[in-house]
Amino acid sequence: MKKHIVLLPGDGIGKEVIESAKDVLSAIAEEFNHLFSFETHEIGGAAIDLYGTPLPETTVNACKQADAVLLGAVGGPKWDLNPSHLRPERGLLGIRKALDLYANLRPIKGFKNLLHASPLKEEVISGSDLLIVRELTGGIYFGSPSERRDNGQVVVDTLVYTRREIERIVDKAFKAAQGRRGRLTSVDKANVLESSKLWREIVEEKKAQYPDVAVEYVLVDAAAMKLITNPTHFDVIVTENMFGDILSDEASVLTGSLGMLPSASINESGVGLYEPVHGSAPDIAGKGVANPVAMILSAALMLRYSFGLDDEAKMIEDGVQSALDAGFHTADLRVENGRQVGTTEMTKLIVDFI
Amino acid sequence: MKKHIVLLPGDGIGKEVIESAKDVLSAIAEEFNHLFSFETHEIGGAAIDLYGTPLPETTVNACKQADAVLLGAVGGPKWDLNPSHLRPERGLLGIRKALDLYANLRPIKGFKNLLHASPLKEEVISGSDLLIVRELTGGIYFGSPSERRDNGQVVVDTLVYTRREIERIVDKAFKAAQGRRGRLTSVDKANVLESSKLWREIVEEKKAQYPDVAVEYVLVDAAAMKLITNPTHFDVIVTENMFGDILSDEASVLTGSLGMLPSASINESGVGLYEPVHGSAPDIAGKGVANPVAMILSAALMLRYSFGLDDEAKMIEDGVQSALDAGFHTADLRVENGRQVGTTEMTKLIVDFI
Ligand SMILES: CC(C)[C@H](C(=O)O)[C@@H](O)C(=O)O
Ligand SMILES: CC(C)[C@H](C(=O)O)[C@@H](O)C(=O)O
C-alpha cells in the first residue's frame, strides 16, 4: 500500500513525539511492504513564529492532498498573550474545519499495569473501556454571532447545528457501537437546550436503522458524575462539540495514564488527523523525556481508521503492551520495579518489537 | 428573630426531606428563641398535576414575599415525556429567574467517616474542601434565540451575558474566597468563546479590589480533569451557568456522599432558595429511607447566608456530624459497623442534638 502522510509536529513535545511515530510507521512499512511517504509542515506556535499565522495556506493545502495527517501538539506560554487570531489553538480549530474533521474519536482504556496510577479506586476503574465520539466542527465553537454588543455591555456566543451535522456524527457513533459492545449513550442537555432536543430526536429516528445497538440518553451533568462513579457503565458515548471537549478530557484522566491516550479526527472521505490527547507540555519539551506512546498509538489509529490496516495497527498496539509488560515506562508514569526510559528508548523498544 | 419561610417540597423524596428540614428548623427556633413561620407551595411535577403548570403564580408570589425558600427536589418519570413547558425542571428554572437567584453556591467537603465511599483514592480526595460559585440566571440557559430554523434543518441556542451579570457573580466569588482560603479559580473557555474572554477581562479588572485573593484561570476542559486528579487544589471556583452545571455535578460525586451536599441560590437582596444537590430519587420515594442530611444542611446554609444566624447553622452542622460520629447513616451510605436508620430517625437524631 502506498500512502502519503503529512506530519505536523506543532510545538513543545509535539516535535519529539512526532519523530517517534515516524520511526514506528517506517518499521511497519518495512515489515509489511508498504510505501509511506512523509512531508512535514508547521502549525500552531511554530507557524506563528515562522509565518505570522497559526495555520499557513501551505499547511492546509498539504493536508488536503495527504492520505492522513499526524499532529503532535500545539500551544505554549510564549503565545499565551497573543490576540485570538494569533493563538496556536486557532491552527487546530482551523485545520479541523478546513478538512471537515467532524468526528473526534477517543478510545479510553486503561493499561492493566498502569491502573494503579489512576486517581480512582482500582475496583471502580478496572474493566472500563469506552469510546467518546465528539462532534468536532459544529456547535458553539464555530457559530456566529460570537461578539460584543452595546459598547461591550453584552456578549453573545451561538450554538448552531444543522440536522445533517448531527445525523452524520450520530451515524458514526452507531456504527462504532456496532463494532464494539453495542451500547450507545447519547449525552445532551435536552431539558434546557433546543439543540439538544433536536439531537435527541435524531438519535431516536436513527435507532431503527441500528436494531443491534441499545441506546440510552444521559444529561451532560449526570454523565459528568457517572463517568467517575461508574466508568465501566459506558461503551460508546456520542455528544456535541463542547460537551465532548469537557467529558473527553474528564474521561482521559480516569485511567491514570493520559500520556498513553490517542485520538482520531475523521472526515466523510475517511481522511483523518491523528493526535495524542495530551498537550505540548512546554515544561518538559526538548528534554527527551516525553512519553511517545499516545502519539504512536495515534499512528496505529491512523492505520486502522484511514488505511484499513488492522493487522499493522494491532502490531503497534502489541508492541506498546509488550514494552509495558517488560516494565519499561517514561517519566510521567510511576511503575513499581519499572525501568524508566526516555522518548527515543521507548520508541526503539516498540520499533524492535515490530 | 422573626422569619417567614416558604417550603417547596416538589416531587419524590423532596416531600419527605422537606419535613426533616422543618423539624430541625423548629428545634432551632425553640432553642434560640426565634419565630420561624412556614407556608407550603407546589412546584415541579406536583404543580403540574394540580394546576397544569410547573410553576403556579401563587408559588412565585409566595416566594417573592418570603424571607427564604426551601426546595426539596423536582422531577420524575411520570412527567418525562411532557412537552418542554410542562416539565418539572421548568419550575426550577422559572423560580430561579423570577427571584433573580444569580448565585448558586455549592460547598463540597467530605465527611471524614464517609470518605471511604468516594470513588477516588483516599489520598486523592482527603483534605478537599471547595466551593463552586455558579452563575445561575444567565448564559445559554436563558438566551434567545433558542429555536429551529429552515424547516427544522437548523437549530440555534444562544449564550448571552451582560457585563453586569458577570460582574456581580465574580464579586460574589471574590468575597466568598476572602472568607475562605483566599484562592479563586475562574473557569472559562477563553480560547474559543467570546463570552469567556469578557468573563476573564472582568475577573482581571476586579482583581485589584481584592488584593488578598490569589486568582488563577483554568479552561473548563482542564478543570474537569483537575477536579479528579487534584481536588485539593481548589478553594473557590467561579464559572458561568452551563460550565457550573457540569463541574458542580462532577465535583458532587468526588466525596462519595452526594446525599449530604447542600446548595444555596441567592439574589442581590440576600433572599435565597436552598436545596439539596441530589434529585427527587423516584425509585426510593415514599419509602421513608431517603437521606435528609443534604436538605437539613441546606436549611443550615439558609440560616447562615440569608438570616446571618451563624451559631444556629453551626449547631445543625454539628448535629449532623455527631449523628455520623455515632455511626448512624441512611441506606444510601455504607458505613462499616454503622447503624442504618430511616429518614425520620436520622432527623430525630439531629433534632435531639439541638
Ligand atoms: C485547544 C482547544 C481549542 C481544543 C478544543 O477545545 O477543542 C482542545 O481542548 C481539544 O479538546 O482538542
Ligand atoms: C434540572 C436542571 C435544569 C438543573 C440545571 O441544569 O440547572 C439541574 O441540573 C441543576 O443543576 O440544578
From TrEMBL, chains A, B:
NAD(+) binds at residues 76-89, 279-291. Gene3D superfamilies: Isopropylmalate Dehydrogenase (3.40.718.10). The record marks Y141, K189 as: Important for catalysis. One of its GO terms (biological process) is L-leucine biosynthetic process. It catalyses: (2R,3S)-3-isopropylmalate + NAD(+) = 4-methyl-2-oxopentanoate + CO2 + NADH. GO terms for molecular function: 3-isopropylmalate dehydrogenase activity; magnesium ion binding; NAD binding. Pfam families: Iso_dh. Substrate binds at R96, R106, R134, D221. One of its GO terms (cellular component) is cytosol. Its main location: cytoplasm. Its EC number is 1.1.1.85. It is an enzyme of class 1 (oxidoreductase). Its cofactor is Mg(2+); Mn(2+). It is found in: Cytoplasm. Mg(2+) binds at D221, D245, D249. Binds 1 Mg(2+) or Mn(2+) ion per subunit. Homodimer. Belongs to the isocitrate and isopropylmalate dehydrogenases family. LeuB type 1 subfamily. This is 3-isopropylmalate dehydrogenase. The lineage of its organism: Bacteria, Bacillati, Bacillota, Bacilli, Bacillales. The gene is leuB.
